[in-house]
Amino acid sequence: MTTKQIQKLKSPKFIQQIESTLKPLEFLDRCAKDYGDIFFTNSFGNLETLVVSHPQDIQELFNPVNKILDAPGAANEIFKPHVGENSLIMQDGERHQKQRKLVMPPFHGEQTVNYGHQICEITQQVMQHLKPGETFIARHLCEDITMTIMLKVVFGIEQEAKFEKLKTLMTTWLSLTSSPIGASILLLPFLQKDLGAWSPWGRYRRLRQQIDEQIMTEILERRQQVQSSSHRDILSLLIQAGYDDGESMTDIELRDNLLTLLNAGHETTATSIAWALYWIHQQPEFYHKVLHELQSLNTPDPVKIAQLPYLTAICQETLRIYPVSVFTFPRITLRSVNLRGYHVASGTYITPCIYLTHHREDLYPQPEKFQPERFINRKYSSYEFLPFGGGSRQCLGQVFALFEMKLILATMLLNYQFKLEEFAPVAPTRRGFLISPQGGVKMSLAVDTAY
Ligand code: HEM
C-alpha cells in the first residue's frame, strides 16, 4: 500500500494559536474543509500535534490491545495553573493509574446513585431563589447548582459561611479566564507574567493561593472528623481510601485533586445543562416529548429518571452537537502506526477531535441540526460518539456527569415552566478551556410555575 502524506496547516504558528483561541470551532471547520480528517497543527502551546477525527483512526489508537498511545502528564502543562502539579491530570504511567483507581469509585455505579436525592434537593434549593417572571442566564443558574453539588456532595462542606467563601473565591477566579480574551492567559503561556496583584496573571495566582489555603483547611479539619463520624461525602471517602500498597493520598495530592474535580466537573456539566435547556425550549416538540416522558413516571425516582430513553437522547445530542470539550487531552505514540494508509511516526503527539468526529456528515447527517432521535434510531460506538474522550484518560466523572445532567434537568422541567428569551440562534463560543453558549442562554421563569 502506498503511504499517504499527512498535511500540515500552512498558516504561521502564531496565527493558528490566535484563531484557535478566539474562534475555535470556525478554525476547526476550516481545517477539516481544507485538510480533511487528519492533519498536523501548531495551535496547542509549543507542540506540533496530529489531529484525528475518523472513527477508524480513533478506534485503532484507543484500543488498549494495540498499546499505541501513552497519555503523558507533561502534555497537559497548559492545565497546571488550573489544577495543580499533583493533580492526576498532570501524572502519567503507573502514578496516574494509581490515582485514578483511588478517585474513581465514588463517581461510579452504586455510589453515584446514593447522591441522587441530594442532587435533586440542591437543584430545588437553588431554583427557589428565582422569582416567577424573573429573567436569568441559564449557564449562571446551572453553575450555581453544579458548584453547590461539588462543594456539598464532593467536598462535604456543610457550614454555610465556609461554603459561601469557597464558592465566591472559585466563581471570581474562574471568571478571570471566562472570556476568549481572558482565556488567553491560560492558552498563551507567554502572557503568564506576574506584574503585581492587579495584573491579570498576578490576580489569577493570588486567588488560586487563597483557594488552595481554603481547601487545605477543609482537608485538615476533615482528617480529624473522619476518625469519629460517618461522613459520606467524596472527600471523606478519599481520605479513608488507600492505594493497593497501603499508601494513601498526601494532603497536597488531595488538595490538587479536589481542585481538579471542581474544575473538571462543575463548569462542564453546567454548560452542558444550559445547552440542553436551550435546545429543549427551542422547539416545542422536544419540550413536550421530554416532559411527557418525565410525567409518565409515577414517582420521579433518580434511578428511573436516569433510564429514560428520550431524556438520555436529549443529553447525548446536546453533548454531540457542541461538546463542551472540543478535544481529548493530548496523547503520544509509543510506536509508529499506520492509520488508513497514513504513516504516523513513534513519538508523535496526537489529539482526537471530539467536535470534528461529532460533525461528520457520514455519521450524523445534517450535523448542525439538533436531532435527539438519532440516538434513538442508532447506537453509536465509543469511537463515533465520545464527549468524554476515551482510553486511559477517559473522563473520570462521566457516569456522575450524565446522572447529574438528567436529574437536574428532570427536577427543573417537572417543577418549573421556562421561556427562552433568545430571539436569534445562540452561537457557541470559547469560555476558558470550554465551548459554551454565547451569552449563557437567556431564559425566564413563567409566572405560573407550579405543575
Ligand atoms: C458533561 C460533563 C463533562 C464532560 C463533557 C467531560 C469531558 C471530559 C473530557 C473530554 C475529558 C478528557 C478525556 C480524554 O482525554 O480522553 C475529561 C477528563 C476528566 N474529567 Fe470530565 N467531563 C465532564 C464532567 C466531569 C465531572 C462531573 C468530573 C468529576 C466530578 C470530571 C472529571 C474529569 C477528570 C478528573 C478528568 C481527567 C481524567 C484523567 O486525567 O485521567 N468530568 N472530561
TrEMBL record:
Transmembrane segments: none annotated. Pfam families: p450. InterPro entries: Cyt_P450 (IPR001128), Cyt_P450_CS (IPR017972), Cyt_P450_E_grp-I (IPR002401), Cyt_P450_sf (IPR036396), Cytochrome_P450_monoxygenase (IPR050121). One of its GO terms (molecular function) is iron ion binding. Signal peptide: none annotated. Heme binds at residue 395. It comes from the Bacteria. Its cofactor is heme. Gene3D superfamilies: Cytochrome P450. Keywords: Heme, Iron, Metal-binding, Monooxygenase, Oxidoreductase. Belongs to the cytochrome P450 family. This is Cytochrome P450.
